[in-house]
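Student:
Attend to each token:
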Amino acid sequence: MTDTDTRGPRARKAALFLTIVVLAVSAVFGAVLIVVGDQANIAGRAWLTLLLVGAFAGAVALDATVSDGPNRWYLPASTITNAVLVAVGLLKLWNGALQPDDTSDALVWAVQFWRFVGVVVLARLALLLTQVYGLRFVTRATSRVSWIGGVVTLALAWATALVLALPAILPAATWPDWWWRLASATTLVAAVAAVIPLLVRAFEAKPAERGGRSTGPELRSYPPYAFPATGDAVQPLRPGAVPPPQQVGAVPLPPQAGAVPDAPQTYAPQHWAQPAETPLPPHSSVHRQPQQPGAAPPQPGADPQAQLVAAPPASSVPPPTASGFPPPQ
């Protein structure tokens, strides 16, 4: 078993363990807050917690179903991302630290909901970009420049997602002006860095230019013969090639220069000898005279040779006619 084969089951086991831990912690956390919590509308928060945990379990199950790809790390990475999103959702549902005070207001609930959706979109986009760029430009990089561009792009993508997600996760905290300037700068640089590996991949030398294997028409191996279409010229054989057997309706190939045509082969008529007659063994059932209707059964103790019928001589057999069937008697 190779290292790639062993990493798959380990990653699935780690993702399963993390999923069970997150579900258990979420259930205990929600149960404790339902009993001792002093937040408004506890019943609604409990139902939303159940919905959040169910969405997490469904996302993990979906990732486990479609995770049999080249990225073996995707399932545990996606499970960790979803676990962080569950923690952010519980923080907003139960009015945790650095959250708005008036959570009973419908407007505050709506703003919190859309902030949470924005965090989910940022995290999943960063994970999707890691899945695509990590495979195309890091794991399967064809040049050093492509590999460096892929690593820098992924680092800037996650930095941008973190800088933009933190104000949405902790809205009550004080975020200075330089933070938003940093968020704008990282977003711009990450967008430009994401385009650079694509340009490098587009301008890279093709396999034929690098001297490697190519499937283009310039390096394909053609057969040593070709059957031309109607009205086209016959293509001669290549030197040393063996001509194929003639097919029905095929155009015959022209003789090669200096080649001696083969003499036509004649076949003499074959005369097949008649096999000698083999005497029948004693007490044999071959050529036994069939029982005629109304005839007396054979007497017990009679000579069995008397019941045998000799094969007709070859001279008595009439010769076949031109049609291949014997003449009528």
